[in-house]
Amino acid sequence: RQALAMMDHPNIARVLDGGVTDEGRPYFAMEYVKGVPLIEYCDNAKLTVRERLELFVPICKAVQHAHQKGVIHRDLKPSNILVCLYDGKPVPKVIDFGLAKAIHQSLTDKTLYTSHGMMVGTPLYMSPEQASLSAVDVDTRSDVYSLGVLLYELLTGHTPFDSDTLNAAGFDEMRRIIREDEPPKPSAMISTLNAEALSTISQLRGSDPRKLSESLTGELDWLVMKALEKD
Question: Which of 17, 43, 75, 143 is catalytic?
Answer without folding.
Answer: 75
